[in-house]
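Marked as duplicate of an earlier ticket. Keeping the data here for the record.
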Amino acid sequence: MQQASCNGSGDWCRNVLPWGSSDNLCPTIEGEQTYWATFKTANQYALYIHHSTMTNKPGNPPNPFLRYDARPCPSNYQESNFQFQVSQPGCWRVSWINPKDGVVRKSTAFTAKAGTWYPQPSPPYPHDIVVLVSKLLDTQCAG
């Protein structure tokens, strides 16, 4: 897979919070921020969304090294405005996967047109989530 991006004019995904932004999606976690990484191939796109707070290294507060302190959100996150587009037409599956245990929380297969934006809201999730968009055989969308 090659590194990709979101929210730009030529990117495959949009409406992802800016990297490192304070999202205020979980009011019980002070200073929480959103981080993400995305990769793609011709037949697959992946986006990993991570929520955490940045804290100084224990025992050495003036040290510029920061660590990520990941804590689950009891009220759950949701990507309600997420959209994606694909580079080739055909049958595609969009899966929302919990990276901690590999459980698919939501999966949808449908026929997509190249270059068309498709809304795909996530299910509620407690901490991290992976969005995987994969090309399928066209017969897997037939019927």
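See parent ticket for discussion. The domain at 2-140 is CATH 2.60.40 (Immunoglobulin-like).
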